[in-house]
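Example record

One chain of 285 residues, shown exactly as stored in the release files.
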Amino acid sequence: MGNRKGKTGGSKIVIIVVMLALLAGAGYVYTAPEFEKEAPVIQSEKDIFWNRIDPLNIPVSDNVALSHYQISLGDGTKSVVVAEGDFKEGSKEKILLVNYPKNNIFDKKSNQLQAKVSVTDSSMWNFFRGNTAEKTIHIKVDHKRPNVNVLANSYSITQGGSALVVFQADDENLKTLYIEVGDQIFKAQPYKKEGYFAALIAWPFNKKEFNARIIAIDKANNKRTTDIPFYIKNKRYRVSWIKVKDKFIDGKITDLASSDPDYATISDKFDKLRAINETMRLKNE
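Predicted structure tokens for this chain:
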């Protein structure tokens, strides 16, 4: 009887130890970073436009590390894997590039596609298979560039002056519209009726070259560039020398310098004059 009680007591202790070990193991699995349960994020809208020329950019990310991805493309009849692979170890963010298949597997007239994206992380959760995120992206194929027509513009523009242009821009999926002059951008404003725009364009006096272009880009990144036919007039500006008195620098120039922390500590009069007359003026243009 004594031995039987001892064996029973020993068995209970073993069971309790095993249960505690299992609970500890379960607690570790649910709390350890290696077993995190957060799925990767596929950062793309469900409905997008594509011109089939530029690669599709699909950003993906994970809170710990990405492991594997697969992207298939289909037109409702046929489907093909267009991208698949493993991420570099430790990668948390990546932009996946999707190119249109070159083997003409899809009907060229098809304007609707679906991209199925699957991304898995490196977690040991789900029996060491990781967390997987899946997303279906509906794609409208659009390869037509926006239409842009210059309706009216100033005959000429002079260096240091400005000119006006009125134009029409048409695209049902228009995304971006502006006037580009070198490294400067001018905003186009709606004019009179839908699809018509106007813009006032300036030619800085310190720029020798001038070329104005209308830039129109749609949601599929199809781009139209149209030159504005201005007659260009360069102008040579006379250089004048003006004598500045200390009274002017100590008065108006010092007041302007004091209003801006970038110039308030300048004590040298010549440096202060240059800072206000050149640096601040360019900054405020």
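Notes: The helical segments are 2-31, 125-128, 246-258, 269-284.
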